[in-house]
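Q: Could you fold this chain for me?
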Amino acid sequence: MSTLTSVSGFPRIGQNRELKKIIEGYWKGANDLAAVKATAAELRAKHWKLQQAAGIDLIPSNDFSYYDQMLDTAILLNVIPQRYARLSFDNQEDTLFAMARGYQGDKGDVTALPMKKWFTTNYHYLVPEVESAAEIKLNSTKPFDEFNEAKALGIDTKPVFIGPYTFLKLARTPEATELELDKGLVNAVAAVYVEVLAKFNELGAAWVQLDEPYLVLDKEPGDVELFKSLYTKILPARDGKIKVLLNTYFGHIADVYETVNLLAFDGIGLDLNEGKDENLAAVEKFGVAESTTIFAGVVNGRNIWRNDYAVSLGLVDALKKVTDNVAVSTASSLLHVPFSTEGEDGLADDVRKHFAFAVEKLGELHDLAVLADASEEDKKASGALAANQALFDGTRVAADKNVAERLAALTDSDFVRQPARAERQKAQREALNLPLLPTTTIGSFPQTKEVRAERARLRKGEITKTEYDEYMKAQIDACIKHQEQIGLDVLVHGEFERNDMVEYFGQNLNGFLFTKNAWVQSYGTRCVKPPIVWGDVSRANPITVEWSAYAQSRTSHVMKGMLTGPVTILNWSWPREDITHEQQTQQLALAIRDEVLDLEAAGIKVIQIDEAALREKLMNSVAGVVVEYKGISVADDTKLRAELRAAGVEYAVVKNTMLRLAIKDSDLAGMTDALTGSTALAISKEDPIAAARILNKFAEGSKKGFALKAGYMEGQVMDVDAVSAIAIKNPAEINDIFSSPFLLNSFC
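A: Sure. Below is the predicted structure, expressed as structure tokens.
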């Protein structure tokens, strides 16, 4: 039997953002709901046919959404808060839009459901709100309608759902607290999924995919029991007909794989990009049930780079040593990558060949399935394999000697601000002469349609650069005048000249590439087009100095320089995969440092560095420790930072207000009370106890006030005693991310 190919999900926004445009047109009253539905049907048909033509065996349906799959699941389960139900719309789509973006009109006034990051991606989901009086029941025909829609086109699909375990773990009460998962609620949710399986049995579906990404997270007491309770009720509904694929991604399920395996799912999807080693070890240790197929998630659903066939085939071979039942799959939904490289004619052929967007990843899946079934002799003769391996011969990009030399020259002292903070603060007070509580704004003023139009005119050659600059200067002048009139102390220039807080900097840095149409859904109809880190990064020319200097020349007030930080630039770009994130972050940090020094030389006395991705970094770390940062000498600080860096721990002095914002409404909010006095934060992505071990040892030897304050591990807040307790059990970068007049801004 030939190796099955499976796609976990496909981008729904359209190659040219057709869905975005038609939905936003509907919101504006430019078209009706019928037009939205017609466009949606056209897109679904196109996407199914693309996958069929690529030879994909298990093509997803119900992965389509007008806004968000978690929201669709809430409506499917009738989890619709009364404030939305009372609007009494004639159709579910308008109810969905009200829940997603709020509603203010004749029917009432409601705000939207809260939004959160979808695990470690840059996608966002709507947080379902389960009221105590909620009547859980099957409330939508959408999954069945779309299955039949594909079937009418001659395409048998695999319906995809957010699984019940993930839904219940992510849903919240109206007070934004975790659900109390009583037996009645669990049974009601399970009953809906039973009904769904029974219906698809009637419709003749061969497979149903239930996505359970929450399984990759550490388990709290009762989690495994909850999972088993749900699926022991759901799985019998297969009735010997339909097959159920339990799909996991964004990490490994080694801690629960044995349980999952014993439940005898027909398929288990394992992410073999993130959590590869742990997943493989679990399969080797516990085996695979006779009736179960392992869906090897070898094609990365979160990057844009070509798959290394040799690596993927090695992973498939490792699984085949345990079981003959192996399929090849995307590691997660392709929702998180652009649609296609087709039309990206701004990228040279020898550059574009290194990228695989959603459509290209379909071809990769097909190639891998063919190669997985091929003999060793046929593999050696394969043109597809040879062409693929040529992409990984190390010649893609030449290293920048100057960047390498700068990185090699860094010493521990380069990661410590000098002079000491107290000395800097004294000098700053004297130089700036600001009130005790100075007022300012974050920085960006609205990018009006007029501003965007002027930028478009420059791009099209309709106006000269001089004319464009004069227009922007007029906007800056008006911005400054407004701030002076309302009495702000530290002013901003408004950033009218910037198209995007990341793209603007990337366009002025060596090592970045840009696409024409590589849009990715962030939430709802909101799409982003991240730049690509292609090579070594350095600053080509000063980026913001001219505009900041002009703004300062127009006022006697202090004018802030405004920069995007290296962590955010990297997190909101497509990073390289041939070097570490640490190396890329340090390259970016050096480029931003060059800009800081030039701003200083131009007379800019306050510089704000925006690190909007700091919250993401916190949420994506396995552990962290908060300390009272005082009474430490420069020499000891340098030594401490070096030890932390060697252990892969990021360490920074932070503003309490900034950190409170970053953890607000998260699982880490319990640390808020500890955020007083002087604070430093240590974060670890891999070793959960490295930070605690090193900082606890240092605190024990300190006699001048350096002390542990709190910590967290896998999302669980710990007090001082708990941090000390784990300390005795065992890609680094260090950024002194705040010390006035440098302002590090984290907005959430």
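A (continued): Residues 730-742 have pLDDT under 50 and may be disordered.
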